[in-house]
Amino acid sequence: MGSVTVSNKKSQTTSLNNYNNLATAPVANKTESVTTNNNCNGWIGGEGASAMTSAPNPKPKIVYGTAGYILEDVPHFTDYISDLPTYPNPLQDNPAYSVVKQYFVHVDDSVPQKVVVHKDSERGVHFRRAGPRQKVYFESDEVKAAIVTCGGLCPGLNTVIRELVCGLHHMYGVKSVLGIEGGYRGFYARNTINLTPKCVNDIHKRGGTVLGTSRGGHDTNKIVDSIQDRGINQVYIIGGDGTQRGAAAIFEEVRRRGLKVAVVGIPKTIDNDIPVIDKSFGFDTAVEEAQRAINAAHVEAESVENGIGVVKLMGRYSGFIAMYATLASRDVDCCLIPESPFYLEGPGGLFEYIEKRLKENGHMVIVIAEGAGQELMSEKMQTMNKQDASGNKLLQDVGLWISQEIKDHFAREKTMAITLKYIDPTYMIRAIPSNASDNVYCTLLAQSAVHGAMAGYTGYTSGLVNGRQTYIPFYRINENRNHVVITDRMWARLLSSTNQPSFLGDKCHNKDNVEEEEPLNQLPNGDLSDDTLKVKKEISSI
Ligand SMILES: Nc1ncnc2c1ncn2[C@@H]1O[C@H](COP(=O)(O)OP(=O)(O)OP(=O)(O)O)[C@@H](O)[C@H]1O
Ligand SMILES: O=P(O)(O)OC[C@H]1O[C@](O)(CO)[C@@H](O)[C@@H]1O
Ligand SMILES: [Mg+2]
């Protein structure tokens, strides 16, 4: 890798090899900014480098290199605490690793966010590669780790807990690991449990989380007080978008107080709506389990004349589960997701398509994500805007609603007699243990998280980017949500597999009606990479 510059007012140039020593360098406020929201919790390293002081204005920690190389780095203890002792990584004496060449990750290793490039492309954004480092910032018996799970359930939660405990124990000799019960509020309202490799040995075979979980109840100060009171110095926080925002707030407070506490996020969401990462753990398991419901709907539908099977799947704001379950099944004739608004009546509408499909095939299967059609439903029904304890919008049951609308339509129109069966497996797909590939994924995520904390990194989410484990600054995880891009090839593949209407009507040819999000990764010739052209809802007026 060529020389890499840490940009700052004094244009100081620092090799990445020295990057961990930045805290002792007189680095001033960074002048460039990156696209991020005001709540970002990353920060430029080196500010206020003296011990027990904190940066007044945290900014993302960005390193620039040659040919447009950008490293969106994660915070490190040395950014705000000076004179920390380091120790050789105990893995170097571990017989399992002694035969592995270059087992330790090189300090300059990073992973590109975009792998599709043109010959003149800039190198673009990179994230720090995860993995064990030669030096660690904790002695084994100094570590007191804590693990907490927050938000909804997801297959694999127990596997991550197990692998954190076993990873800390077996790789780094850490004996003290606490489980925080019942989500964030467990830090200050519940007891903790001691987690040992023995007591977590079998938990990956069970669904749910042995620690319990909750929504709401995040009180940053109380949580950090509890971390301080209990002497915890590594916190592993497993949860979705809300949880990662909470983790960013905890990190900020920890840093403000100048504590040597690693705050590490492990992204969890069955909806796969966390940005940057390839996919979230448990997603594959959920898609696989959804097949059982789709199969049942198909069997019911094809066994009667004009049979319709409707399956509702999870996906509050993003329709990934519905999209992948549809693509995997091949029995689905129509997939409805929040990102692709649809309409019922008239030419090109859902009712017209159902009639056509029944005439052609005698039966059909519809998969609908729980967040789809919410605006349509609210137009037709008087709905209350309710929220859960975390402030997430509580959704109406779109599966029940659409089933009734279809039945009413055919009863009214008398074009054909239909039989409709509605299957709602929503909680069944997330309350199960993770499958084999998710178990492996959870193991890698957990071990990467542990390596990073031991190496003194903090304020990051451990995540898979282009097939490599990385450390991603919280602000990147928290700045937006991952959506199905309906102008992307994946959605086109689905449309061509189901043959359903796009519900875009003429408007899909009218660029004025397409509201595009900022094309973050525009390629040099003006083309947009697959996953960056984001088209928002634009047919609500149809
Ligand atoms: N902006 C925020 N700042 C601090 N804490 C938050 C924030 N948003 C949510 N939290 C806390 O994070 C926890 C989990 O949030 P939430 O219930 O939204 O689930 P999640 O982590 O998004 O998971 P999922 O949506 O996949 O079920 C809750 O305890 C909530 O109080
Ligand atoms: O009923 P709960 O536990 O609030 O969870 C429901 C929500 O959790 C998720 O599984 C994850 O966010 C969503 O798909 C769903 O809307
Ligand atoms: Mg969420």
From TrEMBL:
<comment type="similarity">
    <text>Belongs to the phosphofructokinase type A (PFKA) family. PPi-dependent PFK group II subfamily. Atypical ATP-dependent clade 'X' sub-subfamily.</text>
</comment>
<feature type="binding site">
    <location>
        <position position="370"/>
    </location>
    <ligand>
        <name>substrate</name>
    </ligand>
</feature>
<keyword id="KW-0324">Glycolysis</keyword>
<dbReference type="InterPro" id="IPR022953">
    <property type="entry name" value="ATP_PFK"/>
</dbReference>
<dbReference type="GO" id="GO:0006002">
    <property type="term" value="P:fructose 6-phosphate metabolic process"/>
</dbReference>
<feature type="binding site">
    <location>
        <position position="241"/>
    </location>
    <ligand>
        <name>Mg(2+)</name>
    </ligand>
</feature>
<dbReference type="InterPro" id="IPR050929">
    <property type="entry name" value="PFKA"/>
</dbReference>
<feature type="active site" description="Proton acceptor">
    <location>
        <position position="271"/>
    </location>
</feature>
<comment type="pathway">
    <text>Carbohydrate degradation; glycolysis; D-glyceraldehyde 3-phosphate and glycerone phosphate from D-glucose: step 3/4.</text>
</comment>
<keyword id="KW-0479">Metal-binding</keyword>
<feature type="binding site">
    <location>
        <begin position="215"/>
        <end position="216"/>
    </location>
    <ligand>
        <name>ATP</name>
    </ligand>
</feature>
<feature type="binding site">
    <location>
        <begin position="269"/>
        <end position="271"/>
    </location>
    <ligand>
        <name>substrate</name>
    </ligand>
</feature>
<dbReference type="GO" id="GO:0003872">
    <property type="term" value="F:6-phosphofructokinase activity"/>
</dbReference>
<dbReference type="InterPro" id="IPR012004">
    <property type="entry name" value="PyroP-dep_PFK_TP0108"/>
</dbReference>
<keyword id="KW-0021">Allosteric enzyme</keyword>
<dbReference type="GO" id="GO:0046872">
    <property type="term" value="F:metal ion binding"/>
</dbReference>
<dbReference type="InterPro" id="IPR000023">
    <property type="entry name" value="Phosphofructokinase_dom"/>
</dbReference>
<dbReference type="GO" id="GO:0005524">
    <property type="term" value="F:ATP binding"/>
</dbReference>
<keyword id="KW-0547">Nucleotide-binding</keyword>
<feature type="binding site">
    <location>
        <begin position="427"/>
        <end position="430"/>
    </location>
    <ligand>
        <name>substrate</name>
    </ligand>
</feature>
<keyword id="KW-0963">Cytoplasm</keyword>
<keyword id="KW-0808">Transferase</keyword>
<dbReference type="InterPro" id="IPR035966">
    <property type="entry name" value="PKF_sf"/>
</dbReference>
<keyword id="KW-0067">ATP-binding</keyword>
<feature type="domain" description="Phosphofructokinase">
    <location>
        <begin position="145"/>
        <end position="451"/>
    </location>
</feature>
<protein>
    <recommendedName>
        <fullName>ATP-dependent 6-phosphofructokinase</fullName>
        <ecNumber>2.7.1.11</ecNumber>
    </recommendedName>
</protein>
<dbReference type="GO" id="GO:0005829">
    <property type="term" value="C:cytosol"/>
</dbReference>
<feature type="site" description="Important for substrate specificity; cannot use PPi as phosphoryl donor">
    <location>
        <position position="242"/>
    </location>
</feature>
<feature type="binding site">
    <location>
        <position position="152"/>
    </location>
    <ligand>
        <name>ATP</name>
    </ligand>
</feature>
<feature type="binding site">
    <location>
        <begin position="314"/>
        <end position="316"/>
    </location>
    <ligand>
        <name>substrate</name>
    </ligand>
</feature>
<keyword id="KW-0418">Kinase</keyword>
<comment type="subunit">
    <text>Homotetramer.</text>
</comment>
<keyword id="KW-0460">Magnesium</keyword>
<comment type="function">
    <text>Catalyzes the phosphorylation of D-fructose 6-phosphate to fructose 1,6-bisphosphate by ATP, the first committing step of glycolysis.</text>
</comment>
<feature type="binding site">
    <location>
        <begin position="240"/>
        <end position="243"/>
    </location>
    <ligand>
        <name>ATP</name>
    </ligand>
</feature>
<dbReference type="Pfam" id="PF00365">
    <property type="entry name" value="PFK"/>
</dbReference>
